[in-house]
Specification:
A hairpin with a 2-residue loop joins strand 17 (about 420-430) and strand 18. The protein is about 35% helix and about 20% strand. It contains 13 helices and 18 strands. Helix 9 (about 245-255) runs parallel beside helix 11 (about 285-295). The protein is of the alpha/beta class and about 425 residues long. The site of iron/sulfur cluster (SF4) has 9 residues, from helix 6.
Length: about 425
């Protein structure tokens, strides 16, 4: 069968799509681009913002309109939290965020007897569970895709932080973790497949192992993974919460030669009163302590972050506090998001919902600051040499990333999936230009 997949959302959704793609190929199906004719279309949806919901519905409608006879299977976070809304879009199969391999079994079954099901006027096959009741981590095969340099490894699912603006805990359930032996085995296989970098990802990897109650924390997993991989295969970490960064974490992490000194430390606001309204589990003092600990343990690590602007009730003064705190942290790169009101979240009911003009103005001001800090960080590396793992070529120029996640371009031959030392010559925009 010809199958096309459209994925919305985060690294975890992309990872689960990669696992489904690898499994479909292993079952003898062929994968075609979403624009092409297919026997079945899979839409892996996202619900992180109201815009993601809308995009998910648009893609489903487009698939149904362009391929009235094909099987439409919908999975992912939007299907998990709003199956009724998806059911109204003339689809054949709905599954949530659990049981990806079972979803493929159902897809094959529906492909088999869809004509009979339609003639019988049967509605879609729906298999959506209660995410908060899940206790088992679904182990999915990582990697297996040609030509990739970097492989994602999903090591954790679920979140119980219940930040007031977020619906993810309802879409992904409680914390479940990949076991260390399974993580080691998957890493050895990825190295054997030729991947040069493994990204540990999850919904909230700082909670890895939380359900085990044996005190083993994320650093234990990172040590095991780094040691299971050859020294020349890098390990990069997904988004972290500040509570993870302790003196013990930094001491042990700094001892791992193949761990990338790049830490995406989720911040969301730089103002304590806003952090409180967000129900974030730290204040700016604890956050800054994490930044200082990382800078004490690593040579100019890449510290990147996420910032929400225009959170309900955020005054101009609170926003200025955030800008001052961002300046103090001197991030190497930032993702800036105007607050997105999500029905069903506590934040959606808070007073002081900001008009879009205010959100856009604050995103513009934060963006200007972020670019200035990023430029300063990049300029600090000009004249030095960094190892760069090259990923792709464009017009004779190879693009890759250094361990601190700086994007680097250089001229060369056959550099795909090759790590080479690069002398960094100058900055151009948000990247560095170098020579081998
Ligand atoms: S940590 Fe907060 S923002 Fe992140 S997934 Fe969990 S509840 Fe959502």
């Amino acid at each position: 069968m010809k199958i096309a997949i459209y994925t919305l959302g985060c690294k975890v959704n992309q990872y689960e799509t990669q696992a489904m793609e690898a499994e479909l190929l292993a079952r003898g199906h062929s994968l075609v681009p979403f624009e092409e004719r297919a026997d079945a279309y899979i839409i892996n949806t996202c619900t992180v913002t109201a815009v993601s919901d809308k995009k998910s519905r648009q893609v489903i409608r487009r698939a149904r309109k362009e391929a009235p006879e094909a099987v439409i299977g919908v999975c992912g976070c939007y299907a998990q939290t709003a199956p009724e809304a998806v059911e109204a879009l003339e689809v054949d199969l709905i599954s949530g965020t659990a049981g990806r391999m079972a979803f493929l079994d159902d897809l094959e079954a529906v492909l088999e007897d869809r004509r009979a099901a339609r003639l019988a006027g049967e509605g879609p096959r729906v298999t959506v569970d209660d995410a908060l009741r899940r206790r088992v981590f679904e182990v999915l095969p990582a990697g297996g895709l040609e030509g990739r340099t970097r492989a994602m490894l999903k090591v954790e699912d679920g979140c119980v932080n219940f930040c007031t603006y977020c619906v993810i805990p309802y879409a992904r359930g409680r914390v479940r973790s990949l076991s260390i032996p399974e993580a080691e085995a998957q890493c050895r296989r990825l190295a054997a497949e030729g991947y040069r970098e493994v990204v540990l990802t999850g919904i909230e990897i700082s909670s890895w192992g939380a359900e085990r109650r044996d005190g083993s924390g994320l650093i234990g997993l990172i040590e095991a993974v780094c040691r299971a991989l050859p020294a020349d295969v890098r390990v990069r970490l997904g988004s972290l919460e500040p509570r993870t960064i302790t003196a013990d974490f930094c001491r042990r992490a700094a001892a791992l030669g193949n761990l990338c000194p790049h830490f995406h430390l989720s911040m969301q606001s730089g103002c304590d009163s806003v952090l409180k309204r967000m129900n974030r589990k730290y204040d700016t003092a604890r956050y800054y302590e994490s930044v200082q600990l990382l800078r004490g343990a690593f040579d100019r690590p890449g510290i990147t972050t996420d910032l929400i602007v225009g959170f309900p009730g955020e005054s101009e003064e609170e926003f200025r506090d955030t800008l001052a705190f961002v300046e103090k942290c001197a991030f190497s790169a930032m993702h800036i998001f105007p607050y997105s009101r999500r029905a069903g979240t506590p934040a959606a009911k808070l007073p002081g919902q900001a008009p879009n003009a205010v959100k856009e103005d604050r995103a513009r001001r934060a963006g200007a600051l972020a670019r200035r800090l990023e430029a300063a960080y990049l300029d600090g590396w000009v004249g030095e040499t960094l190892p760069v793992l090259f990923e792709e070529e464009k017009d004779g120029l190879w693009r890759g990333h250094a361990p601190n996640y700086v994007e680097v371009f250089a001229r060369g031959e056959d550099l795909h999936n090759v790590e080479r030392p690069v002398k960094l010559l100058r900055r151009e925009g948000g990247s560095l230009i170098g020579e081998l």
